[in-house]
Design goal:
It is a single chain. This protein has 192 residues and is an all-alpha fold. The chain has one domain. Helix content is 31%, strand content 2%. It has helices spanning 7-21, 47-54, 67-72, 83-95, 100-107, 109-113, 135-139; strands spanning 141-142, 173-174. Strands 1-2 form a two-stranded antiparallel sheet. The longest helix is centred in the first third of the chain and has 15 residues, at 7-21. It is globular.
Length: 192
């Protein structure tokens, strides 16, 4: 008769294996990308504050046009809560120690810009960091060539050579002001 290991034994083995692998405390140079970096004085507001005006006005919620309602159900809003993301991050960290920082940069933008992406397995993130691509990620993004609003980019992480902006996955240049950016130049909003 073959005995199967108990669930507790399996959990203990998993815990022991995960402790051996560990996560990077310092992001490898191969992973670092141009643009605004962690702790570059970027203040992201919680999407809960956005709901005050950008949600809750369409009580029927039938084909709702509320930005908050659409975002909360979207892949962007759930990017930090996605179990497939977390499983993939764990596997990626086993293959290349430190690569998780690249993933967290988008899947927990607020946590990444606040400097909580190390250890690179996501264990340094806070509960509120699971908002994924939140409102401020987009509404504070600027052109990396600084043609409109000047973003926060410090050498050696400048995403342009003074002539041309280099666009790419995760290479965001974030505007340091409290105002939100968007398609309307006549908005009179009371942000922050």
């Amino acid at each position: 008769m073959v005995k199967r290991p108990s669930v507790m034994m399996g959990a203990a083995l998993w815990l022991a294996a995960s402790c051996v692998v560990g996560a990077a405390e310092v992001v490898p140079n191969e992973i670092m990308m141009p643009g605004t970096q962690p702790e570059d004085n970027v203040n992201f507001e919680s999407p809960d504050r956005c709901d005050n005006c950008h949600g809750g006005y369409d009580e029927a919620r039938v084909y709702s046009n509320e930005p908050a309602y659409g975002w909360r159900g979207s892949a962007m809003g759930n990017a930090g809560r996605d179990p497939i993301f977390w499983a993939t991050l764990a596997i990626a960290e086993q293959d290349f120690d430190g690569v998780g920082d690249l993933c967290i940069r988008c899947h927990s933008a607020g946590g990444w810009y606040a400097g909580r992406s190390t250890p690179t397995d996501g264990s340094g993130l806070q509960a509120a960091d699971d908002d994924g691509i939140d409102c401020d990620t987009c509404h504070k993004s600027t052109n990396p060539d600084n043609s409109e609003h000047v973003g926060i980019m410090n050498p050696p992480f400048v995403a342009n050579d003074g002539l041309e902006g280099y666009y790419g996955s995760g290479m965001l240049s974030i505007w340091g002001s409290a105002d939100k950016l968007g398609p309307y130049d006549n908005a009179d909003a009371r942000h922050q």
